[in-house]
Amino acid sequence: MNEATWITWCVLGFSAVCIGIAKTGMPGIGILVIPLVAAVIPAKQSPGLILPMLIMADIFAVAYYKRHAVWKHLFRTLPYAALGVVIGYGVMTLVSDRQLRPNIGAIVLGMLLINYWRQSREGADPKIPDDRWFPAIIGIIAGITTMMANAAGPVMTIYLLAMRLPKEGFIGTIAWYFFIINCFKVPFSAAQGLINPASLKINLAMAPFIVAGALAGIRLARFIPEKIFMAAVQWLAAAGALTLFLR
């Protein structure tokens, strides 16, 4: 990062603001950060650089929505998500940066397609299963995708929607879920050298942007039409993911 251009720093600062907004106001914007960061730093290092920033923003989210978590849904998925993290860690030890870049792009595109399918089924009362095997599959997929690309948001959205939680319960549950699973991922990222003193210095520099984004997210959610905003974010994320996938 000593040779990073001003464009790189601008992208990182913008991404930090988006992470803060995603955690406190508009969750879907978080998917945009993944291809952006992977485009300006080595793809294999990007999940480790993003992770501490996510945890910083998670602290704001759990503090703001701390009383609304539905813990039984967390307990049903977290053990399987932990298994998925271990699987994702194993995959990351076997691939190079050049191989991981298109994989991150593919994961983001897959998550966007899942999110599009979910949104297209709104109002149609989709029959999403809630049997015992369902949280197991969701948890493993979420663990793998969050370890490899910090991209498990759409997967967990599908699961929690299937549980038919009220708005506050939904936000509170997903906030605690990602705070716990992101903290669980730290030793794995550190073992791979993805979290190190140099990356933590960058995270510290990004802290004010995360705080600004977290505070802004609470306000922005009240004024910007969510459908229009999220449509623009998803198109931008798809463009960024395609760039990673095709490079």
Low-confidence runs of at least 5 consecutive residues: none
Structural class: mainly alpha
- Provide a count of the helices: 10
Oligomer: single chain
How far apart are the first and last residues' alpha carbons, in Å? 21 Å
Question: How many strand segments?
Answer: 0
What's the helical proportion of residues?
over 70%
The overall number of domains is: 1
Radius of gyration, in angstroms, nearest whole number: 17 Å
Strand content: under 5%
Shape category? globular
Mean pLDDT: 82
**Biggest sheet details:** none
What sequence of helices (H) and strands (E) makes up the elements? Answer: HHHHHHHHHH
In short:
The chain has 247 residues and is mainly α. The protein is 79% helix and 0% strand.
